[in-house]
Amino acid sequence: MRENRVLCSLIIFVLFAVNEVTADNPYRFFTWKVTYGVIYPLGVKQQAILINGQFPGPQIDAVTNDNLIINVYNYLKEPFLISWNGLQQRRNSWQDGVYGTTCAIPPLRNFTYVLQAKDQIGSYFYFPSTAFHKAAGAFGGIRIWSRPGIPVPFAPPAGDFTVLAGDWFKTNHYILRRVLESGRNLPSPDGLLINGRGWNGYTFNVNPGKTYRFRISNVGLSASINFRIQGHVMKLVEVEGSHTLQNTYSSLDIHLGQSYSVLVTADQPPKDYYVVVSSRFTSPILTTTAVLHYSNSWQKVSGPVPGGPTTEIAWSLQQARSIRWNLTASGPRPNPQGSYHYGLIKTSRTIILANSAPVINGKQRFAVNSVSFVQADTPLKLADYFKIPGVFNLNSIPTTPTWGNAYLQTSVMGSNFREYVEIVFQNWEDTVQSWHIDGYSFFVVGMDGGQWTPASRARYNLRDTVARCTTQVYPRAWTAIYMALDNVGMWNVRSESWARQYLGQQFYLRVYTSSTSFRDELPIPRNALLCGRARGRHTRPL
């Protein structure tokens, strides 16, 4: 009886969701049950967070502009929240799934996300965004396919593989969380996983002579990785929704939170080959393998694992600069990607963001422009909508480094709808940084060593750099991006190093318009969870 009531409620909810999604595009329905489970990915028993009993979680497949109705039941003992790395949530930061926008799902409750893959293609992933749950699993792949009739700049592959790779800890997530909250940084990870499995634990089956697409995402917590396949070259075709020039690589650096698509042809003698993932810029270097199995192979993998780059910064920087936009290829729409001339648009202002690792009140923290973010008791988007005072102060983070003493703050940076901004990420630390911006795809116009100055613009690529949502910043170096603020909402700007994010290296960018038109921003969802000081208020009637 209860399940029938839930089903009826869901049907009514979807019928009245016309303001949240586009009714003339297909709907895809998902029901997820989030539970605890036991896994042994590195040979040690661990508590994991599973979705429908799976680790990693279920794959999401969608076509451009599809509506995704994802009903999530939380059977954990604590609140739970999922975010969608790379999905832009056009006009709809309500559904972004980070605590600055969305209340976590209480235990034994459910919440239905209503998303749209609006004007997007490409390879992405979802993950749990609160309580350091990411160290326990609950992540999975997202594939957004092009609509029929939209040309894709390569022949349909014989198969399409999702590769979720990254570092992993043998320690349970709640213990890691306590380590961070005690004011200490995490130890080094214990190993690497490929699709939730350790050494040679996963197999990719291929037929000789055929070409396959591998969509690789770094879903780890702390380390950049290098991906390679023994004896095979990889043709890069897509980066986070951008079709690229089809350069070939023997190995590919993938930094935290990033996603790449490559084509691999099974053109070698029939046997099994190592699929290798190794850590970058770490000591020691961690390595794990999967298996590329030819269907007519009788020879198992053997011998040494092919080596790859380890700590070479210049090599990685050079590779990053070689990744270019395919100007003639279509994106989610039929017009060529290159018809958007990002380099000819005048920027309205420059924002410089410098990361740091201060100690505040005797505890390790991480900061942006000397501000270490602390969560408010109410999601910022709800506080903004209901005009609840005292939750956050607008412009509570400076737009350039102050180099003063670091402090704790619920930091929100103000900006205006349709601004076109230049953002410089300045890294004076000795570790690679990885930055992600929710709600957006931006153009990585330049990266180099040392201090960024206005003269650095002379080295920008203003013609064919890729648009993406996550970028690396090398040690003692800078990365510059151009970004059109064309998506109204409250958007998380964060480190993809999950300990740094958890301890304050993040803030929110409020993209504001005085317009109340649904063409600029969708209304608050009728089913929005209300928590903190928003509890007891009302969304809107059916």
Automatic annotation (TrEMBL):
Residues 1-23 form the signal peptide. Residues 34-147, 160-297, 377-514 form the Plastocyanin-like domain. It comes from the Eukaryota. This is L-ascorbate oxidase-like protein. The gene is Bp10. Keywords: Glycoprotein, Signal. InterPro entries: Cu-oxidase-like_N, Cu-oxidase_2nd, Cu-oxidase_C, Cu-oxidase_fam, Cupredoxin. It holds the Pfam family Cu-oxidase_3. GO terms for molecular function: copper ion binding; oxidoreductase activity. The keyword Cytoplasm does not apply. Belongs to the multicopper oxidase family. SUPFAM superfamilies: Cupredoxins.
